[in-house]
């Protein structure tokens, strides 16, 4: 297992205690290295031939830094290294795992694929970003409704997705869903 991140400036830095942007500037690779305890490489160095699969975690950083979904929605652009990584694994018929908001990357890069970001309606207030499912459909992809503890496997494209924090759920349910995504990626590898 190796961890990679793009060597780019963050769109903005958020004070998560206050929930608002700061004036600070940070680099995605440097910030990711803090989280990965330094054991990380520039995404530009990733070679699909050296790995059996790739998994993209989610989080709002995906929607702000790996693509411009947070600002542009379905009209977003995908970071060139993220795009080329996804394309390389897809072309090699190697599995791709995506959770939380990161399934929008596949929806943007692979028209016609199947993904989940949870539900397409805000069921019991648990899916406040349910409109993301509609945007995925507008991109020509099929959104599959799943519960937080489930994942969806697009066998034709070897893409496995789960909604994770796109659902307001207890952490153990989010953990279970991510676990099923990882297990399904490993089955396809």
UniProtKB/TrEMBL annotation:
Which SUPFAM superfamilies does its entry note?
Class I glutamine amidotransferase-like
Matching entries from InterPro entries are given as: Class_I_gatase-like
Q: What is this protein called?
A: GAL3A protein
Q: Which organism is it from?
A: Oreocharis arfaki (tit berrypecker)
């Amino acid at each position: 297992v190796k961890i990679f991140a793009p060597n780019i400036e963050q769109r903005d830095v958020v004070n998560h205690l206050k929930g608002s942007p700061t004036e600070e500037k940070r680099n995605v690779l440097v910030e990711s290295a803090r989280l990965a305890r330094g054991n990380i490489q520039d995404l530009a160095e990733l070679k699909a031939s050296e790995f059996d699969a790739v998994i993209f975690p989610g989080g709002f950083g995906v929607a702000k830094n790996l693509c411009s979904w947070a600002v542009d929605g379905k009209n977003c652009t995908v970071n060139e290294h993220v795009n080329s990584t996804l394309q390389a694994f897809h072309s090699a018929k190697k599995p791709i795992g995506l959770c939380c908001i990161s399934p929008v990357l596949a929806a943007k890069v692979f028209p016609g694929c199947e993904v989940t970001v949870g539900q397409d309606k805000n069921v019991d207030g648990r899916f406040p970003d349910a409109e993301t499912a509609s945007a995925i459909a507008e991109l020509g992809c099929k959104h599959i409704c799943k519960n937080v503890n489930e994942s969806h496997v697009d066998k034709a494209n070897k893409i496995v997705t789960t909604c994770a924090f796109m659902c307001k759920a207890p952490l153990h349910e989010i953990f279970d869903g991510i676990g099923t995504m990882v297990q399904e990626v490993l089955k396809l590898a």
